[in-house]
Amino acid sequence: MQANTLVVNCGSSSIKLALFDHQEQKISSALVERLNTADAFARIEGIDAPLPIEPEARYEQALKVVLSAFEELGLLDSAPSAIGHRVVHGGETFREAVLIDDDVIEGIQACSGLAPLHNPVNLAGIEAMRKLYPRVPQVAVFDTAFHQTLPPKAYMYAVPESYYRDWAVRRYGFHGTSHYFMSRETARRLDRTPATTSLISAHLGNGCSITAIRDGLSVDTSMGLTPLEGLVMGTRSGDVDPGLFDYLDGKGITAAALNDVLNQQSGLLGLSGQTNDMRTLCDLADHGHEPSRLAIDVFCFRLARYIGAMMASLNRIDALVFTGGIGENSSRIREQTCNHLGLLGFELEADLNSAHGGFSDGIISSPESRFPVMVIPTNEELVIASEAKRLAETPTPSERP
Q: Which of 21, 48, 102, 143 is catalytic?
């Protein structure tokens, strides 16, 4: 079976690829790791042996290796019909997925100041794929786009209004493709339409965010101007007092250095002093490692506080939904978080929670729970593939009769 749509997600040291057929069923995937180092390699789903990547290879070279392997395996024609790219930050410029042209590339570049660690590498992947497949429609799907429905009361910071007017300082939100998928999949499982479904979506992985979705639209979210704000994450601190910058500057830690610490050395890693892997943390906590136990406690308490806060943006709750690597796989984190929410009426059924909702189409709450609680695996790649296919098949104005 050969692919119709290719999904590309470029990070600073990795590339994720996925192939989908004409029915939007996933065929295969690949992961390039340790990009730009002497130890770069790629793995294709279902193939044990890693593919060697030339030392210090850049995006185009690594992509060529994986795409050639896809072709040799009979998974990919000489060219896919559409290519979808994950782009982290679209600012206020991009409210939805768009076909990529030179103007769109300029727009993504203009947003790079809002996501300097993400947009430039997203663009590197786009430029490489445009060079490799110059005739194939390519589509940018933005993490921020789903959150463009936030009302001003939710996205404005209480700083001088000129900061927003002159420099676009506001809350944008991220993980939009995951939260969008949750809005649709939750509605399907509850036998509702997205436009009549309101939920709290908790995406928990190395990056974590939570979103209030009212009648299918994002109305509040935890991440802000950058992906640093909000929940405790793998290596990111989430919310801190901004006064920390001035306080530590007096101790010789510059704003740039602290920003690096808050993004790369904080969160679960910083609290535990050991790891940002939740599975390892739980094992360490069970063996008496107090910093790991504290990291888990802070993670769950912060999450519970945000769940309570998101209720202020909703007029009803059809479900609280856990997703992402931690949200889907850690019954301990779900239980500990919901234990903080007993006053609000959230109650889990232990067997369903232990089975990650596998016995009941995702539901893990008890019959006595005031609101349904669910576990639903996310599928951001499918969202990107679907958007790429849709836009590639939509006639341009010059093609319309």
A: 143
